[in-house]
Amino acid sequence: MAQVHITDLVLRDGHQSLIATRMRTEDMLPICGKLDSVGFWSLEAWGGATFDACVRFLREDPWERLRKLRKALPNTRIQMLLRGQNLLGYRNYSDDVVRAFVQKSADNGVDVFRVFDAMNDMRNLRVSIEAVKAAGKHAEGAVCYTTSPVHDIPHFVGLAKALTEMGCDTIAIKDMAGLLTPYTAYDLVCAIREATHLPIHTHSHATSGLAHMTHLKAVEAGATLIDTSVGAFAEGASHPTTQSLVAALAGTAYDTGLSLPLIEEISAYFKEVRKKYWQFESAFTGTDTRVLINQVPGGMISNLANQMKEQGALDRMDAVLEEIPRVRQDLGYPPLVTPTSQIVGTQAALNVLTGERYKSVTNEVKLYLQGRYGKAPGHVNEEVRKLAIGDLEVTTCRPADLIADELDKLRAEIEGVAKSDEDVLTYAMFPEIGKTWLQERAAGSLKPEQLLPPGASREESAPRYAADEFRITLHGETYHIKLSGSGRTDATQRPYFVSIDGVSEEVLVEPLNEVAVPAGSDSAPRKAAAAPAPGQKPRASHPGHVTAAMPGTIVDVLVKIGQKVKAGDGVLVIEAMKMENEVQAPIAGIVISIFAQKGDAVTPDMALVEIQPE
Question: Which of 434, 338, 343 shows the shortest CA–CA distance to 17?
Fold first, then answer.
């Protein structure tokens, strides 16, 4: 028996799981002095979705956050979560980018790298683990725990042995959805310890209500490191409460030696901080045993709920949770953890929102089915693969072997905008939003998303329609107005949801006159639609109008006016729910109008391209 050490997750997975990763650096720094004095084995404070959220929503420099935390936590290891060859993005990167990212993370303050691969494909971990060791840092290899017909204890032990052979210092059992049961945890820890003789670190979300018991049995089996989160950001989709585990182990051979009163002071601070982020609160704050079936990880559930809310479809969340296991089975039972959780979750959402399974397939699912993320653990549904990628060849080698060094190319693409190697790597992770972020930083126009004051009106489930954005001046005051959605109530009034200087409001509009549509106009020869007013797009009204399946942002326009297309040809690429989705031509014909351009926010009722049948 040995003392148990704690890694606290409040600065990363705690708020990622409960408030969609929205905690700002300014709310972390004031409490760092007390966090640093507790004596945690490490503080997980970077990686995962924090990098994305910093750039996309908070408009912060994630590297600057890391440097500030490093300065504020001089006595405590800073730990990050790294997705192997995916790093912090949603695709595989070339080996030179992986090595550069790991080195810069180490240079800026990371001490412990927990490295995992969503497929548990060990080929995707080798380069990042080598880079961690080359930087002189602690490499913790993670086994992603899941349940399926192809996952059992011998399978996970084999993965742990492979990580040991790569030179890892510790082994993490990463139970990202709370699926690990106490007695299975005991057997698994015993088996991995016997096979590797390395320290075992257990990570289990509290979603299913099993995590506290799971940690205790893991400790009894010999695990010496456990993950928890201080009470204000614990439980539900997050992790067991730090105070509870400290108290449970006190006075035993496993005593953590940590001060319960000090941790309570820290928790009280975060309790007040959490109130600022009420608009991002997850609906999944209690025990939800459905996770034992849908397997949606804690770090994803609050983000998925928030994304469904942004789609105006939060009321269909249960249907998406029911669809996720079916999609996962079709894809060969990958563990659900970033990016596979987003890949499976977004495809499930598309299947539900479009009303037809695989009517629209994301680019990431297509790449997955081509083997570009690694080898699927189980058998892939060949009908789904054929539907998604046709006769394209399936990759069998390590996916990154197909990617040439790209760091110099990335530097050239962002030259003049990037001011450091860290800026280049930010761009590498998220080219579109990264470039915009760098440009806005140079212009001094970075602004975080607005935090709504407590009690402000918020519409959670209204459909989103055509958007517009403008400024108005009234009585000498100028306001920034963005139309974010609309709905229908009755025959006389219609609600519009607008953002006024970043504050969400709802207005009711009652039309007093209407414009008549000439009789018989539908039978007239069709011509290109009249150009819409600036910032507006016509509503889809006939089969030749190309529309998106869900609200998103245009990331590429694939056609030009006058171009001939066949039904099914790619016309646009949109990003929705952090995944890219190719929008296809509904009919064959000639492109006669393009209403969308790169960067536009679009909704399903907008006509984005018009195709005239030949």
Answer: 338
The span from the CA of 82 to the CA of 411, in Å, is 22
Query: How far is C-alpha 348 from the geometric centre of its chain's CA atoms?
Result: 15
**407-427 residue pLDDT tens:** 999 999 999 999 999 999 999
How far from the centroid of its chain's Cα atoms is residue 165's Cα? 30
Counts of helices then strands in the chain (DSSP H, E): 21, 20
160-169 CB burial, b ≥16 within 10 A, e <16: bebbbebebb
For tokens 């598309």, the residue is: 350
Which has more confidence, 90 or 334? 334
User: Distance (Å, rounded) from C-alpha 74 to C-alpha 251?
Assistant: 29
Closest by alpha carbon to 181, among 210, 156, 212, 143? 210
CB 554 within 8 A of CB 573: yes
Q: Is 136 exposed, middle or buried (0-12, 13-18, 19+ CB in 10 A)?
A: exposed
Give the pLDDT confidence score for residue 297 in this predicted structure: 74
Specify the amino acid at residue 408: D
pTM confidence score: 0.77
Left, alpha or beta for 263 (phi > 0: left; psi -120 to 50: alpha)?
Answer: alpha
Q: What are the pLDDT digits (tens) for 361-393?
A: 888 899 999 999 999 999 999 999 999 999 999
